[in-house]
Amino acid sequence: MTAPTLPTARLVLRQLRLDDAEALFPVLSDADLMTWWSSGPHASVEQTRDYLRFNAATEQGHLCWAITEASADRALGWVTLIDRRPGVAEIGYILNRGHWGGGIAREAVAAVIDFAFARHGLRRVYADTDPDNCGSVALLERLGFQREGRLRGEWETHIGVRDSLIFGLLRSEWPALTER
């Protein structure tokens, strides 16, 4: 399934493509940013391209949007929505460090949540994040996600075995829908 284009006030979220590899290599090669990702920093653009093959695929049971500014079609990061079971999906995101602090991640993730509840028909969206990823935890809390639990020793990653915090958001809790 191809991710539909989602315009916002400042952004255009569009289907992630293989040709986004060059723009996303600085993100995926950033060792500090990749600390909390499921894989280590990339060593080459070709590694990023290989990684994007799955994420950009339209037949994998997930939707993946490149985050771009409305004025330029250059990927700054992405948001993914992975169908896990009927009515439930997991959301994930990554953003180039140079664009942190300006509300871009919040705007992009909120657009995907709007889509998930209003157009994709989901009842629940959840996120899985490392307990030490303070930026991601803060973003989820600002968006109204509730901390639902901690899974101890859940992931074996490039930095070792890590716990996982699970955050959930129900359609009835999403302010963008209830304020309409």
From TrEMBL:
InterPro entries named among the record's database cross-references: Acyl_CoA_acyltransferase, GNAT_dom, N-acetyltransferase
Ranges where the N-acetyltransferase domain occurs: 11-166
Keyword entries, A-Z: Transferase
Native species: Sphingopyxis panaciterrulae
Gene Ontology molecular function, alphabetical: acyltransferase activity, transferring groups other than amino-acyl groups
Coiled coil feature spans: none
Protein name per the record: RimJ/RimL family protein N-acetyltransferase
